[in-house]
Write a structure and sequence with these properties.
The chain has 259 residues and is an alpha/beta fold. It has one domain: 4-Layer Sandwich (Nitrilase/N-carbamoyl-D-aminoacid amidohydrolase). The protein contains 7 helices and 14 strands. This is Omega-amidase YafV. Keywords: Hydrolase. Its EC number is 3.5.1.3.
Length: 259
């Protein structure tokens, strides 16, 4: 795989139609028409359905409609494609982050910290494995929404350059979203992409978006609007090297680890 010092990212911040997978995939296809020379396209948490506990209606298999759509899109755009969706596997349900490149799944991560407050843990099975994978020379750590609140789980052992957190984070806790994203970027000296949805869902929760790309110093990365739901920015590997060389704080991290 070709190594890229710079990573061109597009992310989608939109209002998914509640539990309407076909409609959501059609909409996403329409706004991504004409995309070229993009390294990575990121969708929010449960982008194909909204954050629903109705697994009998929305959960798919790993050979289902949404993943096949993602595979096709990755080939058409020659881009990495990622986001989370409800997956049915061996009669268990997972809120699963999927990363696809060149029509193939290259990484998957099951949400570890399920959101008890919404009843997520009554329906979905938690993942127990932290995942770090490489794409175009960038080491990426996927997280999903509520995972953001747990710094030990997000902890960087100098093994990732970019954390991607895909979310359905309500406006009522917006201050926490902003503060936690910034904290994760600063403490881990890594880029952080926090990609959230907008609109009102089927549970009448309001989401105000505020998707944010942060530098290893916790500064907002310059982003341009391509479409009302589509944004673009560029990440630079040199920024990570520069600040980790200058601020060698990770060398003093505590030795505890997840086993």
């Amino acid at each position: 795989m070709q190594l890229h010092e710079n990573l061109i990212i597009q992310y989608v911040e939109f209002n998914p139609k509640w539990e309407n997978i076909d409609n959501n995939l059609q909409y996403l296809t329409s706004i991504l028409q004409g995309n070229k020379a993009i390294d990575l396209i990121i969708f929010p948490e449960m982008f194909n359905s909204g954050f629903s506990m109705n697994t009998t209606k929305i959960a798919e298999t790993m050979e289902g409609t949404t993943i096949n759509w993602m595979k096709k899109l990755s080939l058409e755009k020659n881009s990495g494609i990622c986001g989370s969706l409800a997956i049915n596997e061996n009669n268990k349900y997972y809120n699963r982050f999927i990363f696809i490149n060149q029509g193939k799944i290259i990484a998957q991560y099951d949400k570890h910290h399920l959101f008890n407050y919404s009843g997520e843990s009554m329906v979905y099975t938690p993942g127990n494995e932290k995942v770090i994978f490489e794409y175009k020379g960038w080491k990426i750590c996927p997280m999903i929404c509520f995972d953001l609140r747990f710094p030990v789980w997000n902890r960087n052992m100098e093994d990732y350059d970019l954390m991607i957190n895909v979310a359905s984070w309500p406006d009522t806790r917006l201050d926490a979203w902003k503060s936690l994203l910034k904290a994760r970027a600063i403490e881990n000296i890594s880029y952080v992409c926090g990609i959230n949805r907008i609109g009102i869902d089927g549970n009448h929760l309001y989401y105000s978006g505020h998707s944010t790309i942060l530098s290893p110093l916790g500064k907002k990365v310059k982003t341009k609007k391509i479409h009302k739901s589509l944004y673009q920015c560029t990440l630079f590997k040199t920024e990570i090297h520069k600040w980790r060389k200058k601020y060698k704080f990770l060398e003093q991290r505590d030795p505890f680890q997840w086993i």
